[in-house]
Design goal:
The complex is a heterodimer of chains A (about 400) and B (about 325). Chain A has two domains: about 5-220, Rossmann fold (3-Layer(aba) Sandwich), CATH 3.40.50; about 240-260 and about 285-390, no CATH class. In chain A, about 35% of the residues lie in helices and about 20% in strands. Chain A has helices at about 45-55, 80-90, 95-100, 105-115, 125-135, 155-165, 185-200, 210-215, 235-240, 245-255, 325, 340-345, 360-370, 370-390; strands spanning about 5-15, 20-30, 35-40, 60-70, 70-75, 90-95, 170-175, 205-210, 220-225, 230-235, 305, 315. Chain A starts with a strand and ends with a helix. Mean pLDDT of chain A is about 80; it is low at about 330-390. Chain B folds into two domains: about 5-220, P-loop containing nucleotide triphosphate hydrolases (Rossmann fold); about 235-325, no CATH class. In chain B, about 40% of the residues lie in helices and about 20% in strands. Chain B is built from 14 helices and eleven strands. The mean pLDDT of chain B is about 90. The chains are: A alpha/beta (about 400), B alpha/beta (about 325). Chains A and B meet through helix 7, helix 8 and helix 10 of A and helix 6, helix 7, helix 8, helix 9 and helix 10 of B. Chain B: One of its GO terms (molecular function) is ATP binding.
Chain lengths: ~400, ~325
């Protein structure tokens, strides 16, 4: 059974000027012991999603859908139960460790707090446990008497990890755990997290904008754009053979040193992330998409099988994994029948980035133009098809 | 070799820190040529930002000289003002370096006003469009909060370009930007070099950035440059154990060397090779096999000269190179 499953989770903030859809219809699952990476840029909704998992969002955020942790719906929980679940079942390591710790209390007290609050230990036991936890995160036990300002950034992040481990949770959510840290310290903290989740069998959700780090740490990757998951699949597949052009651009943003392709050729993506209150029509990525077709401005493709045979489940929300839609005009009237994964691996759905060699939209544009209605009906037909398949 | 545009000669910068002497920059030779992009790489606290500030005349060296166009900097306000028209600073966080109550126009026009440049509006428009904000008039009256992170960084760069400098010193120019924007800003730096022949010293902790845009790289550890040379040589075949470790912890590298601990603070620079306490080559016993371990621990290393060729300040690397030469 899944440890965690999200079903059509949406988060909407209400502000003075209207409603901001920060997360839109996200469905994800996490198995026990699995590590899932959520990638995206600022404003993509990834941190909001993480906070929603433990209902840590402010009151003006409306969360819809279902978030099921270990068989229990988090959104339906009573306050008391929710408090018990936080820390004990699932805990969060926040970005920016200097703000996560109370500056006027010794770190030992802070690590012990959840243990005492949850009644998991008496003060004397808690002290032993704190020493044990500090050792696990690679800090000497005498550090429990230190104040946060006496520690370096990396050490503070280790303390945060010790706190997250204190109540032996089954799930740790790490939101940009290494963002402000130096390369070497980042490597230390990441390998610590990796070892700890492996030795304790803890599941991990890690959130970052750095796809290369996530690919390294996680089994699976979900890429978010404008509040949606646009690609979800095995890490190495998403990182090396992205099927959504946005994932491809994110992967290319962090070059592999030594790779001649990226030498003197930084890869970026034109344009800016969309304003969530004014999302583009159709696929929200289409204004920045290097391989967009005409129909992308009106057609919003949902997540669709995009993987290769023999690999884990892999989905992408892009017209290029839907040759049935791309071909639009020709196949009008003959609903799409094939959704076989391998056939979808058409060579023209390359990873994108700035690649000028990407599909020759010219030929396809002619076909795509004006076929929106037809394409939309195909979309419905194909959805029915998929529903049949999954049932 | 022609005279480098900007040069540090045996530069030392010291601060007093709680009654102790912090040697932030402890003997650095570095040169940036005309039209060259040099990446200065290191962890926080290694002195890279102090070095950059000293090169811009924002700090005065304790000893040593900064030379611009072969001439030592003069630290009078008049001379510094003239120098800063030639060498401009681009800071890390565009949100922090722009005044939230100034429009884009005012932000970019500030430099030209101070320097009494004519045709202000034209200068501003040109700088904005060079920085990729086109059409520039559309941005004149916008405020920083109305712009995205990438656009703000472009405004900061436009502010630097408005003075028509020959050199940019950029301190972590993309560290606070989103992944997809990062490449755009780096591409802009490359384009400016191509179109205007602009030199750049890019201070960063990001080796990928060096690989993306720099001609040469200098790796700094505890106030000194420990390895430098052409990017392709240094990053593909690093000689110094510290560079090797930095590269090994990048995602996708086959074998990791995660150094334990953190760099000592610059008030306590270890004797011998300053890296010896954390050095994986010394710890593995390889240095002892090569018979250099006692030198690593006790003998001070020479300061690397400012030469374009690949070089490393490491006894072990020297021995290995000498052995290789003998074999050949």
């Amino acid at each position: 059974m899944n440890l965690l499953s999200l079903e059509d989770v949406s988060v909407t903030y209400t502000i003075a000027s209207g409603e901001v859809p920060a997360v839109r219809d996200v469905s994800l699952t996490l198995d026990p012991g699995e590590a899932l990476g959520i990638a995206g840029e600022s404003g993509s909704g990834k941190s909001t999603l993480a906070m929603a998992l433990l209902r840590l969002l402010p009151r003006d955020a409306r969360v819809e859908g279902r978030i099921v942790l270990d068989g229990e719906d988090i959104l339906a929980m009573k306050w008391g139960r929710l408090r018990a679940v936080r820390w004990a079942e699932a805990s969060i390591v926040f970005q920016g460790a200097q703000h996560g710790l109370n500056p006027v209390r010794r770190i030992g007290e802070q690590i012990a707090e959840p243990l005492l609050v949850h009644g998991l230990a008496q003060p004397a036991q808690a002290r032993t446990r704190v020493a044990e936890l500090l050792e696990q995160v690679g800090l000497p036990a005498w550090r429990s008497r230190s104040y946060p300002h006496e520690l370096s950034g990396g050490q503070r992040q280790r303390v945060m990890i010790a706190m997250a481990l204190a109540c032996s949770p089954r799930l740790i959510i790490a939101d940009e755990p290494t963002t402000a840290l130096d390369v070497m310290v980042q490597a230390q903290v990441l390998s610590l997290i990796k070892d700890l989740i492996a030795s304790h069998g803890i599941s991990l959700i890690m959130i970052s904008h750095d796809l290369s780090v996530l690919a390294d740490m996680c089994d699976r990757l979900a890429v978010m754009y404008a509040g949606r998951v646009v690609e979800n699949g095995p890490s190495h597949e998403v990182f090396h053979a992205a099927r959504h052009p946005y994932s491809g651009a994110l992967a290319a943003a962090f070059p592999t040193v030594g790779d001649p392709v990226s030498r003197m050729a930084p890869k970026g993506l034109g344009g800016d992330p969309p304003d969530p209150m004014d999302l583009p029509s159709g696929c929200s990525f289409h204004p920045r998409c290097p391989v967009a077709l005409d129909l992308c401005s009106s057609l919003d493709v949902e997540l669709w099988p995009a993987g290769r045979e023999g690999e884990g489940p892999h989905t992408a929300a892009c017209v290029h994994v839907r040759p049935d839609l791309k071909a639009g005009a020709d196949e009008l009237g003959s609903p799409a029948t094939e959704t076989g994964a391998d056939e979808l691996a058409s060579p023209d759905a390359e990873t994108g980035g700035d690649d000028p060699a990407a599909p020759s939209p010219d030929s396809e544009r002619g076909q795509g133009r004006g076929e929106v209605v037809a394409a939309a009906s195909l979309e419905t037909a194909a959805r029915d098809e998929r529903a049949k398949e999954t049932s | 070799m022609s005279t480098p545009l900007l040069q540090a000669r045996d530069l030392h910068v010291e601060f007093s820190s709680r009654g102790r002497r912090a040697r932030a920059v402890d003997g650095v030779n570095l040169a940036v040529g005309e039209g060259e992009i040099v990446a200065l790489v290191g962890e926080s606290g290694c002195g890279k930002t102090t070095l950059a500030r000293t090169l811009l005349g924002l700090e005065r060296p304790t000893s040593g000289t900064v030379l611009y166009g072969g001439q030592p900097l003069t630290y009078t306000s008049k001379a510094l003002k003239a120098y800063r028209r030639e060498a401009q600073l681009v800071l890390q966080d565009p949100t922090g370096s722009l005044n939230p109550r100034h429009t884009v126009y005012e932000a970019v026009a500030e430099g030209p006003r101070i320097h009494g440049m004519a045709n202000e509006e034209q200068v501003v428009a040109e700088a904005l469009s060079r920085a990729g904000l086109r059409p520039p008039e559309r941005f004149f009256l916008r405020y920083p909060h109305e712009l995205s992170g990438g656009q703000r960084q472009r405004v900061v760069i436009a502010g630097a370009l408005a003075l028509n400098p020959r050199m940019l010193v950029a301190d972590e120019p993309v560290a606070s930007l989103d992944a997809s924007v990062r490449g755009e800003i780096l591409a802009l730096l490359l384009k400016l070099r191509e179109e205007l022949g602009l030199s750049a010293l890019v201070v960063t902790h990001d080796l990928g950035l060096a690989w993306n845009i720099a001609d040469r790289v200098a790796v700094m550890y505890l106030g000194r440059i420990v390895e430098s040379g052409p990017v392709e040589e240094v990053l593909k075949e690093p000689k110094h154990p510290y560079t090797q470790a930095l590269l090994s912890v990048l995602p996708e590298s086959p074998e990791r060397v995660v150094l334990s601990g953190e760099p000592p603070d610059p008030t306590r620079i270890p004797g011998g090779c300053r890296f010896h306490a954390r050095c994986q080559v010394l710890a593995s016993g390889a240095a002892a096999l090569a018979g250099v371990d006692s030198r690593c621990r006790s003998e001070l290393l020479e300061v690397l000269p400012a030469v374009p060729e690949a070089q490393a300040a490491c006894y072990y690397a020297d021995t290995m190179a000498a052995d290789e030469a003998v074999v050949r």
